[in-house]
Amino acid sequence: MRVLVLGADGYLGWATSMYFSIRGYEVMGVDNYFRRGAAEELDCTALVSSPDLDRRAAIWKGASGRDIHVRIGDVTDYPFIRGVFEEFMPESVIHYAEQPSAVYSMMDREKAALTVRNNLLSTLNIIYGVNEVVPDCHIVKLGTMGEYGTPDIDIEEGWIEIEHNGRRDRFLFPRQASSLYHTTKIQDTDMLWFYVRTWGLRVTDLMQGPVYGIQTDESVLDPRLMPNFHYDEIFGTVLNRFVVQGVAGYPLTVYGNGNQVRGYLNLKDTMQCVYLSVTRPAERGELRVFNQMTETFSVNELAERVRDVGDRMGYRVEIQKIENPRVEKEDHYYNPRYTGLLDLGLKPHYLTDEVLEGMFEMVEKYRDRINIDAIFRGIRWR
Amino acid sequence: MRVLVLGADGYLGWATSMYFSIRGYEVMGVDNYFRRGAAEELDCTALVSSPDLDRRAAIWKGASGRDIHVRIGDVTDYPFIRGVFEEFMPESVIHYAEQPSAVYSMMDREKAALTVRNNLLSTLNIIYGVNEVVPDCHIVKLGTMGEYGTPDIDIEEGWIEIEHNGRRDRFLFPRQASSLYHTTKIQDTDMLWFYVRTWGLRVTDLMQGPVYGIQTDESVLDPRLMPNFHYDEIFGTVLNRFVVQGVAGYPLTVYGNGNQVRGYLNLKDTMQCVYLSVTRPAERGELRVFNQMTETFSVNELAERVRDVGDRMGYRVEIQKIENPRVEKEDHYYNPRYTGLLDLGLKPHYLTDEVLEGMFEMVEKYRDRINIDAIFRGIRWR
Asked: Is the Cβ pair A128, B117 closer than 8 Å?
């Protein structure tokens, strides 16, 4: 079976490519190195410098004996991506090819416009490419739990039945996000849902929480296969960032009162969730939505967990509450449902102390590469 | 008071510019002539050829003694539109600067991409321009009733309180449209709503039904001031098109069984609604939504009304049901609420036989200009 991974250079994209490759899938990975270039430009490169995709595919071939095909190009360039569809004829396409940072999308107008243009036009091109070339191909789209925001009602998995004035209908669950990046993901979903209804596409939307973790079962084969692990304010997710701060002796920066609760998952579980979605595809004309997370934590809980494990390992980890640079509710109700992927067979890797210790140990190996200045710059939403 | 009209060359934009001008407002109109150029290219120009904006402003000055300032440029070009904000310092901005045709958005990928890029980046630039230059400026955004689609519950004015598992919260009313164009309007609203919450902008979103009519109290002063009246499949709204078909002896093309119900309003009422919104602005941090329509009709009812009036006037009007080129429900529940603008003081011009006779008479004057080939081409959604 042929799986096309768009955004294959990313934190999730490269790990996903290897995950499918080792399981016997024919994999083609596409990237335009946008995030790599932006991180260079903003002086916040990943903890470990990764070889480019062609080089990593060669390293992977040496380690596993398997091929990952690589094409470098921009998914917003339709002739390019249509050509990729025609050449590879994928049965599944995994769409990670978006500007992935909430902070980046809030930095200035140019980056806001880039986020809108990139995320919506890449999604539109995938829709057109699938419809014109491989209409039965299953689109697996990475959404985010952040699309829902923090409503004062339980969060269902994508859909809700609303009763109103004695009548009922089923709708996409209401979404109102707290960054422009997250808003583009809402917009993507609306666009996909329109074409699912109109053209009968098959789509799975994975509403993913923040991911943490630094290794997968495949990346351990060679250190040069490590995911792009970011720990900076712009591209790093919170728990990854906290572990690096712990190693570097930089106080853990908790925004506001730290009561913000989110759903999290291990990088290894992202692999499982995407794999389960591909192997059990949505039907034609179906937009299937899963909430992709395995447990919830407040920011304070994460900071305390990292501090406690770090302290036991001999780091002296401090927690520092700072004025929240974002505009978000700090005290809120949060009760998402996330049973769909468990029903498909997901076996979660929970956030144990051992997992945190493993992350500390990995980061310790690269501590010389930590750029303290990248950790916190206080980029404000207002 | 200074009112900036974006998309001032359009069917609504020019009429709006005159409506505010005659009432003593200082008006600046902006357009990039996109629709004008697209109509040329697709061989479906308006019934009456309008002079360009500079020329029309001069004609208006002669007819009314008042100025309308004109700037030609693209709202997706941020330096341009920011310059307009800095020069004019508007207190209200009326945003018509979108690709306005559902059919156009469904013709091919390039037109789909243009629709997404134009509609979202124009809205983003207005948001940034207002926030950076005139943060107290009121944004009046034209949405469409089509954003709601045809849900099986009553349609509220923009917002709904949802009770779910014993808890309640208020959300934007669920929206699922039946074209990409309408979907970009949903996406616009989500973007505006994000920045309203984050930056405290003041926004009114007018969810407008299809507009009909060919004259306003201002345009009658000189025939060269007439709105861009389109009767073609791509840029024409249904009732305007039917009247032209009646005059031309072209059977009225009813898509599918014709039971599709929508909310309609007279062009003169669009003027009133926009004016009422500007004079009673939304608060800072408020996204105010009105459903802008005055009565509902099925397509069959509209066709029969046009046929009956046309026949009485000596035209021989036929109705022809054709296979629906769109993907939409033909039999559906439809019960929208539209009291907000009435509460603000809207005095509707309902669709009387006299109104239809007036439209027939105006179109008759220009019957030599009707391009039969533009009326129906059967552009399909699938």
From this structure: no
